[in-house]
Amino acid sequence: PRQVLAMAEDLRAAVASQTKRLNSSGEVVERLEENGHQNKKLKSDADEEDAEDQNKRLPKRKIVLLMAYSGKGYHGMQRNVGSSQFKTIEDDLVSALVQSGCIPENHGEDMKKMSFQRCARTDKGVSAAGQIVSLKVRLIDDILEKINNHLPSHIRILGLKRVTGGFNSKNKCDARTYSYMLPTFAFAHKDHDVQEEVYRLDKETLEKVNKLLACYKGTHNFHNFTSQKGPRDPSAKRYIMEMYCGEPFVRENIEFAVIKVKGQSFMMHQIRKMIGLVIAIVKGYAAESIIERSWGEEKVDVPKAPGLGLVLERVHFEKYNRRFGNDGLHEPLEWTEEEEKIAIFKEQYIYPTIINTEREEKSMANWLNTLSIHDFNSSAVGMQANNKNSK
């Protein structure tokens, strides 16, 4: 027992001297702090504060960001300030810009302060592989990495370029290219009993689809392809440069095809309605003449295809590039170096979401069942009679 007591005593003494040493070094640390020296323990906090101060001193510069995102579960791109129940892509983007230190917090609340402008508003559920936003930021180190660290993996910033001070991504954009990925059974004739996984698009049907899509090329009055625009509204006239459906391919037993459309600019729901009408014709619900009729003044019932397959592929700045792209100060807004990243993002996030959602929720199959309730034959005369009666 005496031995045990002696050991315990030694241990106690050792602990006491250790504590004393720690206390005195603590005092030394405190004294050093009072003298204005850096405390090692707090170095990381101080580093962050230093970085924050440095950020504040950085001048703000006008840039564009190249964005890709999978739009499922979002109410479109554009932020609705004050409406938190409908989450948008910009809610997540602005939060990441603030957290990474590129913009001050109050710019997040009032986006005009950073001259924020998106190129396209993309509707609910719509994805993008090449969306462009312009804004003023502090050009911090590793800016892309820092922004992406605060974004969910299905939203990525893939590139950044400096632009002129007056640049506005919406006004300076002279064309937009969208794609629409859909299961090819959408084109099966309504009188044929179709097994969705077995259906394969034949050459004649694809040719018919492309003949109809080509009708949209040129300038037309698209008032029937959006809501809240009258037939005499000049802004309903839109210019379509190209529209076609590519060769079909099979993914997870379902055959898909991709429709590409390039136009100057599009109105809300316009592309989905353009595609919806072509599907209705190919399936045999509507006559081919309905496309011509839809440019006219009468109201035509145009069905709107699901938002799921729609992807903003790229935006074009041809005039800007000619004027500023080679002025020695600014780069042209071309993203050849980012093409591979864009392709990988689509394969990882956009296509699987479209394919899996189609398999699980059957958005196209369910929508096709609604085509029979549309009235594709109401004539202008019939409409006038109905209006008189309703009056």
UniProtKB/TrEMBL annotation:
Its EC number is 5.4.99.12. Its main location: nucleus. The active site is at residue 123. This is Pseudouridylate synthase 1 homolog. It is an enzyme of class 5 (isomerase). Monomer. Forms a complex with RARG and the SRA1 RNA in the nucleus. It is found in: Nucleus. Residues 16-57 are annotated as: Disordered. It catalyses: a uridine in mRNA = a pseudouridine in mRNA; a uridine in tRNA = a pseudouridine in tRNA; uridine(38/39/40) in tRNA = pseudouridine(38/39/40) in tRNA. Pseudouridylate synthase that catalyzes pseudouridylation of tRNAs and mRNAs. Acts on positions 27/28 in the anticodon stem and also positions 34 and 36 in the anticodon of an intron containing tRNA. Also catalyzes pseudouridylation of mRNAs: mediates pseudouridylation of mRNAs with the consensus sequence 5'-UGUAG-3'. Acts as a regulator of pre-mRNA splicing by mediating pseudouridylation of pre-mRNAs at locations associated with alternatively spliced regions. Pseudouridylation of pre-mRNAs near splice sites directly regulates mRNA splicing and mRNA 3'-end processing. Residues 28-45 have a biased composition (Basic and acidic residues). Transmembrane segments: none annotated. It comes from Uria aalge. Keywords: Isomerase, mRNA processing, Nucleus, tRNA processing. One of its GO terms (molecular function) is RNA binding. The gene is Pus1.
